[in-house]
Amino acid sequence: GDFHLDYVRYCKVMNLAPHPSLKLLSSEAPDVNATKSKEDAEEEEPILPLNVRHIVLDTGTCSALFMALKASVVTEITLFSTGLLAEDITELSRVLPKTCVEKLRIEYNPIDTNAEGGDALTCFADLISTKSVLSELSLRGNHLSELHAPSIADALSHSRLNVLNLFDNRLGNDGAAAIAQALRFNMSLKSLSLSKNWIGGDGAHA
Question: By its UniProt entry, which InterPro entries does this protein fall under (predicted)?
Fold first, then answer.
């Protein structure tokens, strides 16, 4: 399906106003009743990634967006500084296996662990777990600390990810040690970034 059209439809069903930065302008929206010629079908444009940056997405908008993903063929998503809550990320992790998404970036989206409790410590790990269908995941700049490390390490030990980017977080020596232990059991990861994570000599040798 067409992601933008599906998104607008789900917003209508949920009695939500579509976010202006996520919907097509009416003049740009294709006619859903129009039939494509053989030539048009052969010359379809490639599927573009969904790229949302510096836009705060409330929970209702997230729900409509995630529902639209299930009917789309989008394979790559970037959510950069979008104000996601722990519950939004948890919902996304549940939806992803029903989508075509293979590459996901949730970046510079720190979650207040004091305000959101235990889910804030485990929601990112849900994206890494064996239930995830992702091949590449970037969690740059999400203020992931040694408190997040146990759940991340546990998920990573049996994850199917090929690429994991944890650049610019706060995992520290203990977090690095937990992840190093998990890597002994991981058979799929080919690339891991831990730069700028407050890791000293002890963590580097873990």
Answer: Leu-rich_rpt, LRR-containing_protein_71, LRR_dom_sf
Domain ranges for the chain: 46-205
Q: How far apart are CA 139 and CA 142, in angstroms?
A: 6
Answer yes or no: are the C-beta atoms of 142 and 169 closer than 8 Å: yes
Residue with tokens 């836009």: 55
Q: Report whether pLDDT(82) > 80.
A: yes
Q: What is the pTM of this model?
A: 0.83
Residue 29 pLDDT more than 90? no
Distance of CA 190 to CAs 24, 160, 196, Å? Answer: 37, 10, 19
pLDDT in tens, 43-65: 555 567 899 999 999 999 999 99
Task: List helix spans (H) across the chain.
Answer: 3-13, 38-42, 59-70, 86-95, 113-116, 119-126, 149-156, 172-183, 201-204
Per-residue pLDDT, averaged over 133-144, amounts to 96
Looking at domain 46-205, its CATH superfamily turns out to be Ribonuclease Inhibitor (3.80.10.10)
